[in-house]
Amino acid sequence: xxxxxxxxxxxxxxxxxxxxxxxxxxxxxxxxxxxxxxxxxxxxxxxxxxxxxxxxxxxxxxxxxxxxxxxxxxxxxxxxxxxxxxxxxxxxxxxxxxxxxxxxxxxxxxxxxxxxxxxxxxxxxxxxxxxxxxxxxxxxxxxxxxxxxxxxxxxxxxxxxxxxxxxxxxxxxxxxxxxxxxxxxxxxxxxxxxxxxxxxxxxxxxxxxxxxxxxxxxxxxxxxxxxxxxxxxxxxxxxxxxxxxxxxxxxxxxxxxxxxxxxxxxxxxxxxxxxxxxxxxxxxxxxxxxxxxxxxxxxxxxxxxxxxxxxxxxxxxxxxxxxxxxxxxxxxxxxxxxxxxxxxxxxxxxxxxxx
Length: 355
Fold this sequence. Notes:
Blueprint: E1 3-6, H1 28-43, E2 49-52, E3 55-57, H2 59-75, H3 78-88, E4 89-105, E5 109-112, E6 122-125, H4 137-141, E7 151-155, H5 158-167, E8 169-174, E9 179-187, H6 195-202, H7 217-224, H8 226-234, E10 240-244, E11 250-251, E12 254-255, E13 261-263, E14 274-286, E15 289-303, E16 313-317, H9 322-330, E17 332-342
Parallel strand pairs: 1-2, 4-16, 5-8, 13-15
Antiparallel strand pairs: 2-3, 4-17, 6-7, 8-9, 9-10, 11-12, 13-16, 14-15, 14-17
Helix pairs in contact: 1-2, 2-3, 6-8
């Protein structure tokens, strides 16, 4: 049977030595919701054994050995959760502050039109047929999907359209007051390049440009120069397609839970894994400065992203609204990441590697 490696990652796999300042800073009910969303799929999963911490398990075995006891604790509330966390579970270090990089993403609520008119010129597309599903971004922006009736709605800003692509979901609010929730339906399969990073590398954004606190200097520049935005978005071959959904903010197991669901690199961290993280999230603007709030909590690997690469790279789902938008725009912080594994139950432990 195939063996995939998660958890034992050289020296970074040592168990956390220092105890956290707080075991978990969110309400236990949100952890219950996040666990209940993924457990049915994990219990029914069929796949290879993974190396999870110092154990070798299938995801179904991990769900039974680790996630179900964690859910039982969370159902008894915060006190029981914190009391049992260190007694019954082991935290295996995946990344420390020198390797952990945390960002945030959110579910935008955006103005839209069902028809193309006025400022509403920028469509979000359904997945096309096989003949057109591999078109690069530049080809699509140049009209490669026109006339196929794939438009789910038209946005009034190219910057807003690109932002929806980056966030991976949105609720469109149409002019007649109705709404439509969208989530990703895959991509064109081409590699991702960050258009904002490309622009910064080319030096097109004036160094003396000043953005208001809580706003991105790059986004501010491109809002004022939509033609340049189109040019640099076209340099990113990766293009996202969308589909309708009854949910607001969806991941690999359905509804995402703000503060609990995170996107990871699924080649390095298994989807469904319970994680413990410590970092900071942008939370407010005061006296002209962005303020960051420290967080220390359990999270679940429930999503992925084209830009999320590496074992310590984590994108935290933060919900919807102005504060969530601020967090998504301004959070880029170091942090710690640990994999949670039950101490006593589960398959036989693996022998420790010699240094």
